Amino acid sequence: IRSDHDKNRSLRYSVTGPGADQPPNGIFTIDPISGELSVNKPLDREHIPNFHLRAHAVDLNGNQVENPIDIVINVIDMNDNRPEFTHQIWNGTVPEGSKPGTFVMTVTSIDKDDPKTANGMLRYKILSQNPESPSSNMFTINNKTGGIITVAAGLDREKVPQYTLIIQATDMEGNPMYGLSNTATAVIRVTDINDNPPEFTAEMFFGEVPENAVNVIVANLSVTDKDQPNTPAWNAVYKITGGDPTGRFSVPTDPTTNEGLVTVVKPIDYEISRTYVLTVEARNEVPLARGIHSPRQSTATVSIRVKDVNESPYFDPNPKLIKLEEGMMPESTLTIFTAQDPDRYMEQTIRYSKLSDPANWLMIDQNTGRIKTIAILDRESPYVKNSLYNATFLATDNGEKKASGTGTLQIYLVDINDNAPKVFPQEAEICEKPEPNAINITALDGDLIPNAGPFAFELAHRPSDVRRNWTITRISGEYAQMSLKIGYLESGIYEVPIIITDSGNLPMSNTSYLRIKVCQCDMNGDCTDQQHIMAAGLGTGAIISILLCIIILLILVLMFVVWMKRRDKERQAKQLLIDPEDDVRDNILKYDEEGGGEEDQDYDLSQLQQPDTLEPDAIKPVGIRRLDERPLHPEPQYPMRSAAPHPGDIGDFINEGLKAADNDPTAPPYDSLLVFDYEGSGSTAGSLSSLNSSSSGGDQDYDYLNDWGPRFRKLADMYGGSDD
Fold first, then answer.
1. CB–CB of 239/283 below 8 Å?
2. Which one, of 47, 45, 48, 58, lies nearest residue 16 by Cα?
3. Are strands 69-74 and 50-59 parallel, antiparallel or unpaired?
4. Which of 126, 306, 310, 636 is deepest in the core (most CB within 10 A)?
5. Where is the composition biased (Acidic residues) (predicted)?
């Protein structure tokens, strides 16, 4: 770099920019006097392909002589990088039987050198193929793009399922002398197509099945298929092409073994056909490849033998309907109800029996099936629904394993006039006077029309006052109206006999009693008496309820008595086990307790109500204390006062004691209510005063008190020591 101004003055040169005074620093330097620009470090085009510098020229004083100039330095590429494949192992697939020219896959390689020069121009080629079957050149590669295609026919997955190719990429346009190269592996997997049909392992298969069996596997059909297992080209589908016109068999596929399962889907009758010969064809889930045809081995024959079993007899028709008039007498023959035995090749006899006869009207002859009556048939029976009565009979053969079948006999009972009508309602209310109301009545008849209504209503002739007091008027064929005939009838309950006749071919009459309550009525014609007609006696349910209540009450009383007796026995047992004189633990009482047991609570309240009746010996003198009791303060001396003459109540007695204490100047005020002249009639517990008395128990040995623990240590010290 040189300036024209350096002829007459001395100049200094410098460069700035990336590679000079900016990162990467120090790559380029310039001689400040001669202006010679030099490179000090190796350059890498693949890292920085060019540099942009600026040159400066100044005089010795640092003044700018010329404007800065730009310098662009381009790095020239050299073939210093080998081609690199983006994957070291490439995977591809191609269907078997593919034609030449079928595209398989593309491999790619990258060279960091300049792709615009020969250093970055790559060429591909196949170095090797493994295995070399059926030809060593089954594939070729486009040397510029890296695309791999087939060049030969004969790809067969069943023979060669996979090919391995070594691919080479070379720069310098593939020049083996100057170019750099690298290799990668291409793995080509041959995919399966349905070019192998399934073939049966045998031409004939055999099986047997009992008649009437359903969903039973008869035979297993096995096939072989050279295609890839568990693919649509390998999975078998079976179809029956002959020998089963009624569709009694099917052949589903076992998903695990790929076998065909010959299965019975409809019952088979031995008496109709003893053997079946089926023709079964095997195919795949997908069609065979073009040009492939099913061989003879894809079809097999299945021979099935049917085994005879004892079948149940059957009634025909079932149910059987017969039509009869009700009222048929016992021992009357109704019909013959027989069953057929489907086992024509077995010599068997059939026995009949009754299975269901709700009303117990029928019987059947066990040999002939003749059905007779053993009771009168009644259409109005609760077991008859819509005039139909159903009875079920059983037919059983005498085979080695007995079989039975049922048949239903339906008897349609024709109605006859065998039920007399009854009045409805049976109870009613009416006012004492004929106005303003009457009673509408009808009749109930168990028979059907025309053996029921219309009805004829008539009052009975007796008693004589019926027709005198009442009148009946027909409203229609089903209804009539009852009303008072006289102007007034005394209140009460009347039973009016009414003769009702139906319209049967042989009419039936019946005298029904209508229970009428005659009562006083208000303006609206309603009874003012709210009591309605009640039944004279209690029903069975009410009587049973009352008896149950009485029994429960007696049980409760008995349980209470037993509990009381048991409680008394326990109390007596306690008294027998504990002797208050000998057990010192029972004699040591706590002062803060109200009593020592149940017996201490048995107070004589009569002594409290009349304290003047106490005996003088029973009253504890004022001021007397036990010998072992510590005095707290001087005892006041109360003056003797006369007892009240029968105060009758303890309150009066306490009030007098309170008044006397208030008037006593020597009594402390806080102690006046605590002083009582009567302590009670005594306690069954022994006194503790004997513990300090040498006269009671002086000869006893109290050393056992030492074994009772620390609470009895004081007593042990007092009585368990020496005579001191």
1. yes
2. 58
3. antiparallel
4. 306
5. 594-603
In 3D space, the residue among 242, 259, 238, 258 whose CA is nearest the CA of residue 250 turns out to be 238
Q: What tokens were used for 270?
A: 């031995």
Query: Residue 324 CB: number of other CB atoms within 10 A?
Result: 17
Q: What single letter denotes the amino acid at residue 624?
A: I
DSSP-based three-state secondary structure for 97: coil
Position 317, amino acid: P
Where on the phi/psi map is residue 330: left (φ > 0), alpha (ψ -120 to 50), or beta?
beta
Under 8 Å between Cβ of 221 and 238: yes
Q: What is the mean pLDDT of the chain?
A: 81
Which tens digits make up the pLDDT trace of 97-137? 899 999 999 999 999 999 999 999 999 999 999 999 999 99
Q: Which two tokens stand for residue 558?
A: 């008995």
Structure tokens given for 248: 């009694």
- Whether the predicted pLDDT of 374 surpasses 80: yes
First to last CA, the chain: 142
HSE on the CB side for 670, CA within 13 Å? 1
* 404's tokens: 């039975």
CB-based contact 332:372 (threshold 8 Å): yes
Instruction: Report how far apart, in Å, the C-alpha atoms of 14 and of each of 10, 77, 397, 595, 707 are.
Output: 14, 28, 128, 127, 121
Specify the pLDDT at position 92: 95
d(CA 156, CA 163): 11
- Measure the CA–CA gap between 225 and 236, rounded to whole angstroms: 9
Q: Are 359 and 326 in contact (CB under 8 A)?
A: no
Contact 298, 198 (CB under 8 A): yes
Q: Which amino acid would we find at residue 673? A: L
Which neighbouring-strand residues pair with 94? Answer: 190
The CA distances from residue 286 to 35, 142, 231, 234, 638, in Å, are: 83, 35, 9, 9, 130
Q: What is the pLDDT of residues 306-356, one digit of tens each?
A: 988 877 888 888 888 888 888 788 888 888 888 887 777 777 888 899 889
Q: What is the pLDDT of residues 143-153, one digit of tens each?
A: 999 999 999 99
Residue 122 pairs with which residues in a beta bridge?
none
Q: Are the C-beta atoms of 273 and 280 separated by less than 8 Å?
A: no
DSSP string, 283-294: EESSPPPTT---
Place of tokens 């005063």: 689
C-alpha to C-alpha distance for 238 and 511, rounded to whole angstroms: 82
Count of beta carbons in the 10 Å neighbourhood of residue 701: 9
Element (H, E) at 209: strand 204-210
Give the amino acid at 134.
Answer: P
Cross-strand pairs, 472: 482
Let me know: does 13 contact 68? Beta carbons within 8 Å: no
C-alpha of 591 from chain center: 66
What's the whole-model pTM score?
A: 0.46
Q: Look at the block and give the residue holding tokens 């204490």.
A: 661
CA pair distance 231, 193, nearest whole angstrom: 10
Q: Nearest 5 degrees, angle CA 425-CA 431-CA 432? A: 125
The 10s digit of each residue's pLDDT in 499-530 is 888 777 777 777 888 888 888 877 776 777 65
